[in-house]
Amino acid sequence: MSIDLGKSRAFALIGLITGGLLLASCSDRNINLSPAAVGESLSQEGGPAAGAATNVAHEQPIPGDEETFQTYVLASIPERSIYLFAEENGVTLQVGDLTRQYDWIYMTPRGIEPWLKIGDFDADGQDELAVNLYIGSGTGISVEELHIVELDDLRNYPLSVDDVRSQIDQAIDRLKASHDIPGRYADKELSFGNWIGYEMAGAGLQIVIGLGVPEQGAMPEYIGELTAEVGYKEGKYELTDFRFVEDEQAAVSHGESGLAELGVNNESAESPDGKYVVEAYGVNEGIAAGGLHPAEGIRLVKASSGEELWSTMGYYSHSFVWSPNSRYAAVSYEARTWGGTIVIDARDGSEIALPDLEALRREWGGETTVNEHRSDPLFRSEEWLDDRRLRVSFEWFGANGEGYSGEYVYDVPGGKLLELRPNA
Q1: Helix/strand/coil for 255
Q2: Distinct helix (H) and strand (E) counts, the chain
Q3: Are 74 and 85 in contact (CB under 8 A)?
Q4: How far is Cα 83 from Cα 54, in angstroms, rounded to an integer?
């Protein structure tokens, strides 16, 4: 398990480095890609799932020979016959019978794959393809690059930060004047360019820009993120609706968070027979969100001796519910935007997994969707109906602003989903 701290926490952890962002220019040239080559690139019948990428595949080199690169699928939207292939030098995009090769950077050592989205981004009644590439990583650097491709002839229009730099500079000045960027930064030069990301926002696109205050001989002080809606028209981009969100730790360091100090939620619950205690303990001071540090860990111990029977990492919030017979502890935990629930058998400290989001979708009885970038599933144990049956509430975000929620009843020792109750 891992704590999802979101983009703003990631900004704070990696920092920002002064200097401009060099984005690769993107030229393109037509090539032919045979149906046989396409078939060899797909590892599953019918192609991979939308937005998925196959594992990197290389032919094993013959001793004395150079390694041969083998084309593979980076991302796809099979229902629209759209496939993005990794090539030794760049990528090939196939849309139906059209193919074109571009000298795009598509991978860094972090191994973050591209994503593809279809939308009418210029409101002309015709869909375009948005391609997001992760092109830069390193100490203080995390850079994504956005391209919009016209589907009729695969014309490519990259969004260069240099092309919209003046728009960003003007927005920063406006936000300083309106005090949406705190007044303590009014006379500071704010740097940007080494943390750039893109994401879907409803039916449109959004840019996320990390801001920092340059410091002499040191990494800039990260202060928060600037977001804006991405407008596209006839191959040109306009950024609108700028917003600034200050980093929590930056506010705390300047004494303006309203918190004397960050707290930690260290809850505990004793079993009905008094033999066991499940608890969150300690504090992880290295990270924070919402005015809280996460706990150092969660553990199940014997009340009489303190012997630890089970443990895992801590989160920002926790809740514990014991079965009436004191055998099972339902452990719920929450990170910044999501949360989960597992059950611990006090007999031997073993973990019992509960139905996940995909298991619930299979039982839903109707079509559901999942937001590929921020589904933020949240599962919380509510009560034991008896020694076997646990009631759990859930929610998650779907595509296009949809939301799903409800509760289910699970037979814990039997390992069976008994009832699913979606909210209307």
Answers
A1: coil
A2: 5, 25
A3: yes
A4: 12
Average pLDDT, the chain: 81
pLDDT tens digit string along 303-362?
Answer: 999 999 999 999 999 999 999 999 999 999 998 788 999 999 999 999 999 999 999 999
Q: Which residues of 357-370 are buried (b: 16+ CB within 10 A; e: fewer)?
A: eeebbeeeeeebeb
Helix (H, G, I), strand (E, B) or coil at 45: coil
Helices (H), 50-200: 165-177
Q: What is the model's pLDDT at position 255?
A: 54
HSE, side-chain direction, 13 A CA sphere, residue 320: 21
pLDDT tens profile 183-192: 888 888 998 9
Would you say the C-alpha torsion 256, 140, 8, 244 has a positive or negative sign?
positive
For the segment 232-257, what is each residue's pLDDT rounded down to a tens digit? Answer: 999 999 999 999 988 876 665 555 54
Q: Which two tokens stand for residue 266?
A: 């260290």
Q: Which of the 8 DSSP states describes residue 364?
A: S
Cβ atoms of 20 and 84 within 8 Å: the answer is no
Closest to 236 measured CA to CA, from 142, 126, 155, 115: 155
Buried b / exposed e along 339-355 (16+ C-beta atoms within 10 A): bbbbbbbbeeeeeeebb
Pairing, β 236-246 against β 141-150: unpaired
Cβ(384)–Cβ(321) under 8 Å? yes
Q: How far, in Å, CA of 239 to CA of 274, rounded?
A: 60
Give the Cα separation of 196 and 140 in Å (integer): 11
Q: What are the residue ranges of helices labelled H in 63-115? A: none
- Comparing CA positions, the residue from 51, 228, 56, 83 lying closest to residue 154 is 83
Task: Look up residue 347 and give its DSSP letter.
Answer: T
